[in-house]
Amino acid sequence: MSDHIQHYEVIVLGLGAMGSAVMYELSQSKIQCLGIEQFTPIHDLGSSHGQTRVIRKAYFEHPDYVPLVLESYKFWEKYEKEFGVELLVKCGLFTSTDLDHPVYQGSRLSAQKHYVEFEELNQIDLAVKFPSFSFFDQKFALYEPSGGYLFAERALECWQKNIHEKYATLQFEEKVQNIEPESSKVTVTTNKNIYSCDQLIVCAGAWAKKFIPHVPLQAYRMTYHVFEHDDAKDIPIFFFNTPKNNWLYGFPPIDGKMKIAYHNVHEPCDPDTVNRFVQQKEIESIYEEARAYLPKLGKHVFSKVCLYTMTPDEHFIVCKCSKYNNINIAAGFSGHGFKFSPVVARALVDLATQGKSIYPIEFLHSDRFSN
Ligand SMILES: Cc1cc2nc3c(=O)[nH]c(=O)nc-3n(C[C@H](O)[C@H](O)[C@H](O)COP(=O)(O)OP(=O)(O)OC[C@H]3O[C@@H](n4cnc5c(N)ncnc54)[C@H](O)[C@@H]3O)c2cc1C
């Protein structure tokens, strides 16, 4: 450990999707910053690994997310130009459930309120438009042509590799052990060094609770699974509300492999001790449900554990800490945060450097839990 305490304008704790995007945006704004990550680059122990993530506009969770996701689409397209790679694939997305289901109603409300293009399809429309599926028990779906997916790990790689090195330093395999906010600075102690900064941004995913104990967060163990499937061109992103009331979703096949997962089948965990082994019965159970809708779903390829960090209301926390003006928080993404990472990153840069953001993020303040 060196005696000299290095000082930065901003330190970012955690380099998953949020932290990597924040570091990229900070360096673009020419702010001297340090990002600290306990694991290696693009590791598979947090919440941001895997090839792909869903992006959609008709946000059933709340219409207030729509302006943010619309901004995110612009960022993803800008990043594609900046990095010269494909990050966003608008393959369309359908959500299949009963018309009176809150997810269906919420999606339609958000779409109508914010003029997002959508179609309401019945069982016959669905069978004609998407012949690779069997809609045996599904009568309706809301289809969003602008929905699609993002190349997730590719995005992290781009942010990390294209960082402006004159302004930004990334430290991997270094674990933050303590943060100490004082009136004029924050001291950050790791297993290797002591640093200080004017502003700290906490992007610690499932580990965030340790650093922001006043915020109600719970980590959950999730799994995703990859099976063989021929590269059928009629498969968009799909969400099915199954007879077991599971939310089963999946992606178009890429190179003969299809990723599927449940959005709502999870168990509370501690990120340091979580069981990272996927059991055969978990694979069989999702295969059985998915195969009913996708008759050509083939052999199992691999499965992985991934972590959700939930808040009690399943909305994010993106704010400046009310108690400490020099701590900024991006946490509790509740299984739907990836698509927002560019706009969350830009909002955090604003919060850390100007104390407020131009983006409408007030509804994501942690104070909503303080009563
Ligand atoms: C299976 C699965 C599917 C998902 N699907 C979607 C989807 O389709 N669409 C969507 O928008 N979102 C989706 N999400 C959610 C989205 O991926 C997450 O919201 C997002 O990736 C969270 O990023 P993060 O940076 O907050 O967390 P993480 O990626 O976990 O990053 C946090 C980082 O902080 C580091 N860290 C923690 N503590 C310390 C410490 N003490 N010292 C140093 N470093 C530390 C961790 O090692 C980690 O790298 C999904 C999530 C999962 C798990």
- Indicate the radius of gyration in whole angstroms: 21 Å
Give the termini separation.
42 Å
Distinct ligands, ions and cofactors found in the model: flavin-adenine dinucleotide
Which CATH class of the largest domain is shown?
A: Alpha Beta
Number of domains: 2
The biggest beta sheet is recorded as: 9 strands, mixed
Choose one word for the global shape: globular
Structural class: alpha+beta
- Could you list the spans in which at least 5 consecutive residues all have pLDDT below 50? none
- Number of separate helices: 7
Mean pLDDT across every amino acid position: 96
CATH-defined superfamily of the largest domain: FAD/NAD(P)-binding domain
Number of strands: 20
What percentage of amino acids are in beta strands? 25-35%
Order of helices and strands: EHEEHEEHEHEEHEEEEEEEEEHEEEH
Describe this structure in words.
The chain is globular. With 371 residues, it is of the alpha+beta class. The strands form three sheets. Strands 5, 6, 7, 13, 14, 15, 16, 17 and 18 form a nine-stranded mixed beta sheet that branches. Strands 1, 2, 9, 10, 11, 12, 19 and 20 form an eight-stranded mixed beta sheet that branches. Strands 3-8-4 form a three-stranded antiparallel beta sheet. 24% of the residues lie in helices and 29% in strands. Helix 1 links the parallel strand 1 and strand 2. It has two domains: 6-48 and 154-216 and 313-369, FAD/NAD(P)-binding domain, CATH 3.50.50; 93-145 and 218-310, D-Amino Acid Oxidase, Chain A, domain 2, CATH 3.30.9.10. The chain is built from seven helices and 20 strands. Bound molecules: flavin-adenine dinucleotide. Flavin-adenine dinucleotide binds next to helix 1, strand 3, strand 13 and strand 18. Residues 13-19, 36-39, 46-48, 53-54, 175-176, 203-207, 222, 224, 261, 306-308, 333, 335-339 line the site of flavin-adenine dinucleotide (FAD).
